[in-house]
Amino acid sequence: MKINIKRYLNISNKNLDKEPLKKVNMKNSNKVSKDWWKESALNIPKLITETPGPKSKIMHANTARYMKGLSSQVKLFPVCFEEGFGITLTDIDGNKYLDFSSGIYVASLGHCHPKISEAVAFWAKKLMNVHDFTTPVKEKLMEKMATILPGKLNAIQLYSDGTAAVEAAIRAARAITNKHEFISAYRDFHGKTMAAVSCAQMYRGETHSYGPTRAAGFYMVPRPDPYRPLWTKTDGTIDTDAYIRFYENFIIEGTVGNVAAFVLEPAQGWAGSIFPPEDFFPKLKKLCEKYKILIYDDEVLAGMGRTGEWLTLNHWGVIPDIVTFGKSFGNGFPVTAMVVREENGDALEKISASSSYGGNPMACAAAIASIEVIEEEDILQNVRTVGKFFMKRMQKMKEQHPIVGDVKGKGFLLGIELVKDKKTKEPFDEAGILVYQKAFRKGLAWIPAGHILRMSPPLIMDEKYASQGMDIIEEAIAEVEKEFGYR
Ligand SMILES: Cc1ncc(COP(=O)(O)O)c(C=O)c1O
Questions:
Q1: How far away, in angstroms, is 331 Cα from ligand 1 center?
Q2: Which atom of ligand 1 is nearest to the CA of 265?
């Protein structure tokens, strides 16, 4: 027998009085001075031993004896961090680094932002977990999110890692459309569970042996990379229409006509901060409307201000049907979200959407405080302004360095592509690794990625430190050029 749960719910929205809730002390209201991190950043980088230092080496060796599957970031520079504040990280030997990675696109508002840390600590002492029952902080977060998200994106569920939100988005797309196929793009990344790896090509070659990983009904297509176009117009620039034509042909010929969604990062993070041409998403949106295919915009890495907008897709005026957030959303506290349009909210009833940790009070407090910091400290504007400075600086590097083939980015999502030869554009992976290690040794904590150097500095950073970080990178590039005989 099917139970009609609505009969048992005696809820009316009519007479809800919000006043009493406003009295709940949520520790989110303390505004912090915009300059909270500046004193701790004076005189960085400050190195007092070789790096990684002797204590780092011992601690890393002790840990790595048991902890396996470490990322290349750690393997290439096995340092042990003890503290982080604002844009600085301090290792166990007392060396202070300038942070150009925000963890891994996570602590975007600076390490241990006082407002965010206090909000989490407050709820850690008051209420830790009540599954998906309503709490005052959750109510506030829902209302806050509805104000920052475009269009009618306001049917929300919360999770504790990006991949869980991605999985939920895939289930939601199926529930909304009653269709089951998905199209994603070469070199996109969406996480490491089975549906997520089915939307990417993560496991290839000797280093990865999961066996066949792409589930049935998941397809991949090339996505436009302006530096390495597959199809060009007669003037040599990338031909977005050719990609769209290929997709249309693929939908007709390569699927069984049951495509639920295009699954895409708005800009490719892991692949090296690759942004599509300006006309790509508007044209893709038209194609998707024609075939009643949803656009699922995975903003786990690029969202929440990293490119100067709440959603990176905002840059191109496209409102997605589904969106996921993570990383910066809680500034380091594990909280993520999956959001669909209001008219599709019922689909979340069909996918058993809740989880054990999703939306716990600490998580909600971290997310509210992070959103409030972005607003109070005018972070979006800082990202746009300093982002332009970054681009100018990188353009100069491209002109002056024989191995810098391309520079790319918006806001604080940045990439420098290293090549062996500017004409052939052959990727220069060996140089990428060396530049990463050399710059880290000089006091820049950042992210390696093959031949594309990736940068994701904390969004609070000003031009002074942006310039300092770029100086270190440029110095490292020049040294590598010398070592490989380019100078
Ligand atoms: C675009 C994108 N989606 C999903 C994920 C997975 O998030 P998490 O590592 O929190 O599971 C990532 C992680 O890097 C990501 O970059």
A1: 14
A2: 1
Q: Which of 406, 61, 468 is nearest to 229 (CA)?
A: 406
Instruction: Provide the token pair at 390.
Output: 């970054």
Query: Which of the four pLDDT bands, split at 50, 70 and 90, describes residue 127?
Result: very high
CA 453–ligand 1 middle distance (angstroms): 19
What spacing in Å lies between the alpha carbon of 376 and ligand 1's midpoint? 27
Residue 338's nearest CA partner among 330, 346, 348, 350 is: 348
pLDDT at 10: 46
- Mean local confidence (pLDDT), 345-353: 95
Q: Which of 71, 73, 166, 329 to mutate to test the pocket of ligand 1 (most atoms within 8 A of CB)?
A: 166
Nearby residues of 252 by Cβ (< 8 Å), 6 or more positions away: none
- How far CA 344 is from CA of 172, 435, 478, in Å, comes to 9, 47, 53
Measured from the Cα of 105, ligand 1's closest atom is 14
Give the pLDDT of residue 15.
44
* Substitution site in 106, 163, 193, 324 for ligand 1 pocket (most atoms within 8 Å of beta carbon): 163
Task: Name which residue sits closest to atom 2 of ligand 1, judged by CA.
Answer: 190
In this prediction, residue 214 has a pLDDT band, given cuts at 50, 70 and 90, of confident
Q: For the segment 186-212, what is each residue's pLDDT rounded down to a tens digit?
A: 999 999 888 898 998 766 655 555 556
pLDDT-derived band at 32, boundaries 50, 70, 90: confident
Taking CB atoms and a 6 Å cutoff, what residues make up the pocket around ligand 1? 161-163, 166, 189-191, 265, 269-270, 298, 300-301, 326
Tokens representing residue 421 in the block: 């030869």
Angle of CA points 316, 380, 444, to nearest 5°: 105
Q: Is residue 303 within 8 Å of residue 169, measured between CB atoms? A: no
Which atom of ligand 1 is closest in space to residue 191's alpha carbon? Answer: 6
